Amino acid sequence: MCRINTWQYSPKPHFSKMIDFQTIADNIEQRDGVWYAKTAAQVSYPSEATSIYFDIEDNSFWFKHRNACITALVKNFSAKSLFFDIGGGNGFVSKGLQDAGIQTALIEPSPVGVQNAYQKRHIQNVVCSTLDDAHFRTSTIPSAGLFDVVEHIQDDVAFLKNLHRYIQPNGYVYATVPTYSWLWSEFDVEAGHYRRYTKSSFDKLLAASGFKLVFGTYIFRMLPLPILLTRTMPSKLGMQKLFMSSEVQKEQHGAKKGFMTRLAEPLWEQELKNIKNLKSMGFGGSYLVVAQKVGV
Fold first, then answer.
1. Taking the complete model, does pTM exceed 0.70, yes or no?
2. Contact in structure between 217 and 280 (CB atoms under 8 Å)
3. Which residue range(s) make up the domain with 112?
């Protein structure tokens, strides 16, 4: 039986090898190939959003570019570690990392997201749980990602301090978060967000939780203005529509590849090149960061 801290990446990934999560977590059981927590906490995330995003992720410029940026950063620091995608929804990020040769485990509380990830995206190692409900043991997670997760946590400091306890010494944590409080809109309310961040505020949060900043950069540099015009201003003027509807999300995620989507492609390519070279960018609609656990 393999322990989690001995699992290493090899040039030929062996994703058929399943992880026995009971060796590292005390409150889970396996059913039909998926691990489930024996208890389930409430999360601040609209139940319908999981299905809406599953229908658009594969064709969304936003999800595809975020995946490319995440994968480039993870390969730079954690290519040989088992990677935990915490709150990973339908497994879109997990699939991207898995395809890049990084052994990945998805931790997701939504049963709909879990089934999409396991049955449709063929993610091999899936746990239907929040991070805390699974009762992971101390220092058992080599590296973890929180991709558009922390803004859904009411007490973000307590959440990250708990995560610090689960991460192995010198292990890495990756995150993306939405930026700038002045972009707050009804979309954030519908999406279950508690806040938006800046580089400064999120770096301080990481430091307060016991993590040392390794690299951080804004991404989606051209998006703040469109967000201001299509979400923030309509909300402030009382003209907002239901932002979490399938139709609105397909429109805003560019499921139909129009002129503006094609116009932005060179900018996304430059952002990705900057990240591969660990070159920070000073403005954008999301903040992408990697930090390392300090202390025991």
1. yes
2. yes
3. 4-293
